[in-house]
Amino acid sequence: MQEIQKKYQIGVRRFGLVNWVGVYTLYVKEVTRFLVVWAQTLLSPLISSLLFLSVLSLAIGNDRGNVLGFPFISFLAPGLIAMSIIQQSFAHSSSSLMIGKIQGNIIDTLLAPLSAAEVTLAIILASVTRSIFIAIISIIVFSMIVEIHIYNIFYIFIFTFLGSFILGALGFVAGLWAEKFDHMATVTNFIITPLSFLSGVFYSVDRLPEFFKSISQINPFFYMIDGFRFGFLGVSDGSITFGLIYLIFLSIIMWLISYYLFKIGYKVKS
Known about the structure:
Layout: H1 2-7, H2 20-36, H3 38-60, H4 72-103, H5 106-111, H6 116-143, H7 153-177, H8 181-197, H9 210-216, H10 220-233, H11 240-263
Helix pairs in contact: 2-6, 3-4, 3-6, 4-6, 4-7, 4-8, 4-10, 6-7, 6-11, 7-10, 7-11, 10-11
């Protein structure tokens, strides 16, 4: 009798240190969530990037000189892909939490035999997966339109992973904080979009006045996009080594914040 009570004691984990089956199940559920509506989650970002590329190509054309030694369009293409990657990673994790809270099915996640660390990692890694899908599709399509140089695929992957991981964690935090979609729009409009446009997507930061150039040096979006572009062109505006260390540190910090907030039940437990 005592053995049965011990075996089925409430609150005792019986999955070992990590519930790998649970993590994988939640991860697959999140990946399936964006694959089911692939036209919205994968095709739409691609079309937006292509529109940016088309408009700027028509507006500027050959009048713009080389940037970092490359034609403007070849410089622009990796930046547009990187911007799409980080924005969509944020959108995935934030919408996952927001929809769960509004529809009430977040209770399924809260009652699952998963720790806060396992839940946060599964959702954030699903955001990273969505970004990788977008990166692969965008690179293939863009290569059919403009000349795409690939200098080092390792840097393309590592900066895709780090950038999408950080934005996935930020989206997780924003999803916990927001109580309605208007709150989420505030984060997107006043944080994500401005930092994206001020990160050197459309220009080299060397052309900025010294004051704004100094501000760019602390913008994590700058290092995400600059490092991603370095993987294609082999040249960068900033230090790739510093950017890599900075993003690794920031990814750990952002995950710890998302883990802590979910662990204490911030705005999800009454």
